[in-house]
Amino acid sequence: MECVVQGIIETQHVEALEILLQGLCGVNKERLRIHELCLRSSPNLGSVSSEVRLICDLEQPEPTWIIRHVGGAMRGAGAEQLSVLVRTMVESKASKNALRLFYALGYKLDHELLRVGFSFHFHRGAQITVTVSSVNKVPKLHAVDEAEPVTPGIQLVEVTAPAASDNYTEVVTAVSSFCEYLAPLLHLSKPGVSTGVVPTAAAAAASLMSDGGGTTV
Ligand SMILES: *[C@@H]1O[C@H](CO)[C@@H](O)[C@H](O)[C@H]1NC(C)=O
């Protein structure tokens, strides 16, 4: 399972967010350039339609494909009250011909994306990953170099952490308390709950920039 929250930030404030994250995590960012193929199976072929993503970080020295399947969100047991989404997620390494395999299984390419940005990986009560990226749509088959922003001037921020059924409450707490530090710049919530940009972002960004990132938390 994984715990996840998302938010958006204007591109002009991304540098301030990076300074803040650098200060909070004490690790260096990793650049990412992720090619993502979203595949769907037709519902008439199997019992239910399903969606898988083939993902490849082109920024890696030896890019390899990963298959990711995001399952349903946890229900009941107060899941609605949590500020963080807990969901099942399966990831597996794939070979180069994975796409052909999925085509043979009856999956069709739904859309292709290129996410460009950076991420931070660190431990803070849980193994947290923060990803900041602009999401670009690939206009023609596999033409990643022609990708165009889906929402110009806006970037997606995602905070995730691995969890299990016996420790998710701990992970949810760690993720929520980390998100509070980012609150002046952006609001993070469960995926699908749109919250928009926060009004304090410009002032918070200006103060972080003039600080030079010297703030210690
Ligand atoms: C919770 O469990 C998952 C799966 O075993 C593990 O990856 C993660 O590090 C654990 N997190 C904490 C905070 O114990």
Automatic annotation (TrEMBL):
<dbReference type="GO" id="GO:0031554">
    <property type="term" value="P:regulation of termination of DNA-templated transcription"/>
</dbReference>
<keyword id="KW-0539">Nucleus</keyword>
<keyword id="KW-0804">Transcription</keyword>
<comment type="similarity">
    <text>Belongs to the Mediator complex subunit 18 family.</text>
</comment>
<dbReference type="GO" id="GO:0048442">
    <property type="term" value="P:sepal development"/>
</dbReference>
<dbReference type="GO" id="GO:0009737">
    <property type="term" value="P:response to abscisic acid"/>
</dbReference>
<dbReference type="GO" id="GO:0032784">
    <property type="term" value="P:regulation of DNA-templated transcription elongation"/>
</dbReference>
<dbReference type="GO" id="GO:0003712">
    <property type="term" value="F:transcription coregulator activity"/>
</dbReference>
<dbReference type="GO" id="GO:0045892">
    <property type="term" value="P:negative regulation of DNA-templated transcription"/>
</dbReference>
<dbReference type="GO" id="GO:1900150">
    <property type="term" value="P:regulation of defense response to fungus"/>
</dbReference>
<dbReference type="GO" id="GO:0006369">
    <property type="term" value="P:termination of RNA polymerase II transcription"/>
</dbReference>
<dbReference type="GO" id="GO:0035196">
    <property type="term" value="P:miRNA processing"/>
</dbReference>
<dbReference type="GO" id="GO:0048441">
    <property type="term" value="P:petal development"/>
</dbReference>
<dbReference type="GO" id="GO:0070847">
    <property type="term" value="C:core mediator complex"/>
</dbReference>
<keyword id="KW-0805">Transcription regulation</keyword>
<dbReference type="GO" id="GO:0016592">
    <property type="term" value="C:mediator complex"/>
</dbReference>
<dbReference type="GO" id="GO:0060261">
    <property type="term" value="P:positive regulation of transcription initiation by RNA polymerase II"/>
</dbReference>
<dbReference type="GO" id="GO:0048440">
    <property type="term" value="P:carpel development"/>
</dbReference>
<dbReference type="InterPro" id="IPR019095">
    <property type="entry name" value="Mediator_Med18"/>
</dbReference>
<dbReference type="GO" id="GO:0048833">
    <property type="term" value="P:specification of floral organ number"/>
</dbReference>
<protein>
    <recommendedName>
        <fullName>Mediator of RNA polymerase II transcription subunit 18</fullName>
    </recommendedName>
</protein>
<dbReference type="GO" id="GO:0048443">
    <property type="term" value="P:stamen development"/>
</dbReference>
<dbReference type="GO" id="GO:2000031">
    <property type="term" value="P:regulation of salicylic acid mediated signaling pathway"/>
</dbReference>
<dbReference type="GO" id="GO:0010219">
    <property type="term" value="P:regulation of vernalization response"/>
</dbReference>
<dbReference type="GO" id="GO:0009723">
    <property type="term" value="P:response to ethylene"/>
</dbReference>
<dbReference type="GO" id="GO:2000028">
    <property type="term" value="P:regulation of photoperiodism, flowering"/>
</dbReference>
<dbReference type="GO" id="GO:0048510">
    <property type="term" value="P:regulation of timing of transition from vegetative to reproductive phase"/>
</dbReference>
